[in-house]
Amino acid sequence: MNRNDAACTTSTRLASGEGDPHLRSQLALTELGLRSYGIQDVRGEQAEAVLTRALVGTRAELVVVPPQHLRLHESLGVLLRYADQRAER
């Protein structure tokens, strides 16, 4: 399997919240980092799973950049900007 394979995964792990959908879209580099925001029910898993869940849960946009245009560690990069619609009311 090579890096261009759709099934290829990274070794990077991230921490995400568990429970309701809002908590599942919360993520951090470490479990301790996520707990510092008051989220106690935390699990670590592959970055692809955590980022995909956050993407879907927040209805974010996915932008695929060809590898020749941007060099990324393990072919994975993310820019998360999320405004809670409830806070804007």
Give the SSE map.
Blueprint: E1 13-17, H1 21-24, E2 27-28, H2 31-35, E3 42-46, H3 47-57
Characterization of the model:
- It is a single chain.
- By secondary structure, the chain is α+β, with helices and mostly antiparallel strands.
- It has one domain.
- It is built from three helices and three strands; from the N terminus they run βαβαβα.
- The protein has a three-stranded antiparallel beta sheet with strand order 2-1-3.
- It is globular and about 40 Å long.
- 13% of the residues are buried.
Q: In which range does the helix fraction lie?
A: 10-25%
Instruction: Please mark out the parts with pLDDT under 50 across 5 or more consecutive residues, or reply none.
Output: 1-7
Distance between the termini: 48 Å
Morphology call: globular
Q: Give the count of structural domains.
A: 1
Which class do the helix and strand fractions yield?
Answer: alpha+beta
Order of helices and strands: EHEHEH
Sequence of strands across the biggest β-sheet? 2-1-3
Number of helices: 3
Number of strands: 3
What is the residue-averaged pLDDT? 78
Main sheet, how many strands, which sense, barrel? 3 strands, antiparallel
Cα-based radius of gyration, to the nearest Å:
14 Å
Strand content: 5-15%
